[in-house]
Amino acid sequence: MIAGASSIYLDNNASTQPLPEVVDTVSRVMRDSFGNPGSRHAAGRRARQVLEDSREKMAEILGALPEEVVFTGGGTEAINLALFGLAAGRKGVIATTAGEHPATSEALGVLQKRGWRRHVLSLDSEGLISRSSIDAAAWNEIQLVTVILAHNEVGVIQDIAPLVDVCSRDGIPLHLDAVQAVGKIPVNFHAMGATTLALGAHKFHGPRGVGALLVKKGFTLPPLLVGGHQERGRRPGTEPVALIAGMAKALEMWHQSAADRTQQLTQLRNRLQAGLSESCRPVVINGSQAQRLPNTLNIAFPGCDGDALLVNLDLEGVCCSIGSACSSGSSEPAPVLVAMGCRPEVYKSSLRFSVSILNTMEEIDLAIDKVARVVARLRGHA
Fold first, then answer.
1. Percent of the chain's residues with pLDDT above 90
2. How deeply is 256 buried, as exposed, middle or buried, from its count of CB atoms within 10 A (0-12, 13-18, 19+)?
3. Exposed / middle / buried, residue 7 (Cβ in 10 Å: 0-12, 13-18, 19+)
4. Closest CA to 192 of 212, 221, 210, 214
5. 209-222: per-residue pLDDT in tens?
6. What average pLDDT does the structure give for the chain?
7. Can you name the residues that pair with 8 across neighbouring β-strands?
8. Rounded distance between C-alpha atoms, residue 354 and residue 321, angstroms
């Protein structure tokens, strides 16, 4: 149960509640290690120690070197830093998919105005990059590849091995948007073979306002901002040590209980999926045959309107979404569902439910009942 909440919170891909241990860590570090980590005195050294301990802890869990970890203000900044940095000083073709997060797609739009071209790798009906589109791409023209590792809307985990093979063969930088993956599934930066990898703390019960970009050793990225030499000159600005410590604590807590969390989340998600499939027929589970994040369910209720579902469920005390919170003001269908070839009656009636370890089976059963009533009412059956 979400602390202090009267609603059933099933929108954890948008943001998770920081765990009590994380809040305690942030509070303690703000109190005891408040100095500027760049200052050359005792208070500064205490803050610097916390900062570097957090960096080392995260690097170890994520299969990276400490010097490859660049702290940012969140996942969006990490993605922007990677894409604008990898594209700096050159032009060419960027390979990506039609279902990327707005932080990626809008950054690519800026790069297109600067002379870059976008090559879209097609998705199959389950949201996976089709092998034929990889084989057919003009790799002699492609200068950069960016792909979302675990999709924020449908939860599908991308098979990146074919892309890694091509990028390694041709020396093409590969960026991974792992914002929804880190803290939910194992992520090993070196084993994956990516050039850069973005993450955000608030997706795995850490604080908002902090994230990181992993940058492969030997690659130099020009900073987005100017004004300081922090983070080895890659991200100027005094590091938010308390938030970084909270992020490291949240990742450490996931790492220590990853198998149990995966089992718990899968049971919650599967119960929700089974219950809605039974009580709200007909439904369509988007991406159901692909490997998915254990906590994510994207489900369509043909005959209903997604916006109407969202409003009515909010009134019933069920928090969910119709897609990325970063594009919640848009009435356009989720690009990933269109790219997967979903019919209009499917993508127009799809909702995303994303559970967390703070949810209970009792909440799931209550949510099933509430959703079923709303769907029946909107279909005119009530």
1. 91
2. exposed
3. middle
4. 214
5. 999 999 999 999 99
6. 95
7. 318
8. 9
Q: Would you state the structure tokens that stand for residue 206, as one six-digit string? A: 């850490």
d(CA 253, CA 251): 5
H-type alpha helices, the chain: 20-32, 42-62, 75-87, 102-113, 131-136, 161-170, 189-192, 241-256, 258-279, 306-315, 335-339, 344-347, 361-378
- In the chain, count H helices and then E strands: 13, 12
The per-residue pLDDT for 229 is 87
Q: Scanning the structure block, which residue is given the tokens 């279909």?
A: 379
Quick check: is 342 catalytic?
A: no
User: Which residues are within 8 A (CB) of 333 and not within 5 positions of it... i.e. 6 or more apart?
Assistant: 344, 347, 348
Here the tokens at position 122 are 């097609």
| DSSP 8-state code for residue 122 | P
In this structure, the chain runs to a length of 382
* 31 exposure class (CB count in 10 Å sphere: 0-12, 13-18, 19+): exposed
Q: In angstroms, rounded to a whole number, what is the distance separating the alpha carbons of residues 60 and 20?
A: 23
**CA angle (298 as vertex; 250, 369 as ends), nearest 5:** 95
State the DSSP code for 143: E
Residue 280 one-letter amino acid: C
Inter-residue long-range contacts of 161-167, CB under 8 Å, 24+ positions, other chains counted: 162/129, 162/131, 162/134, 163/129, 163/134, 164/192, 164/193, 164/194, 166/134, 166/139, 167/193, 167/195
pLDDT digits (tens, 9 = 90+) for 220-238: 999 988 898 899 889 999 9
pTM of the model: 0.95
Q: What's the rounded Cα separation, in Å, for the pair 250 and 95?
A: 33
Cα 275 from Cα 364, distance rounded (Å)? 9
Distances (CA, A) of 240 to 1, 72, 180: 29, 9, 22
Q: What pLDDT, in 10s, does the model give residues 96-107?
A: 999 999 999 999
Catalytic entry in 167, 280, 326, 342? 326
b/e map 189-228, b = 16+ CB within 10 Å: beebbbbbbbbbbbbbbbbbbbbbbbbbeeeebebeeeee
Positive or negative: CA dihedral 192, 195, 201, 203: negative
